[in-house]
Specification:
Blueprint lengths: L1 E7 L4 E11 L5 E10 L5 E7 L2 E6 L8 E6 L5 E6 L7 E5 L21 E2 L1 H5 L21 E8 L1
Antiparallel strand pairs: 1-2, 1-10, 2-3, 3-4, 3-9, 4-5, 5-8, 6-7
Amino acid sequence: MSRDTYACERCPLIIELGGYNTWDDAGNLELRFVQVVCRSCGTMHRLLGKNDSHQVFALRGPVRAARPVTSRNVWGDTFETHEWDSESEWLHIGLFSGGFAGINEHSCSCCGKPGQMMSLAELLHPNGYVKNPSNQAKCPVCRDEMKWMATKSW
């Protein structure tokens, strides 16, 4: 699994995009997860697909600030970190028949506009993948440069 987090200082907007795939013992795709963002308003959406069933989840709106959270490490020591969303904030929107190929056609659950979903690949390579791109990630809402904050991998 890999998701990259970016922040725009201008609007401000925080987005986390990416996903993962899982396979069964026979090597067949079992589960696919993709997190995208609406270009119009900045609301993040998730598409979770298993076999022919695709579920859509979304946050209530765009994330504009990180909030402090106190956590414990394996030794029981507390430390402060920041989070921009929690699993409990993701709302189940419903089934999506378009599958992963049609995610861009999905309507935003916040602003309602169809055809505005953007993936991590589009954020990093808006004109298609090119070797050693000179372009930097641009905010989907205000088009200002976004700064990379973190990568979650596991």
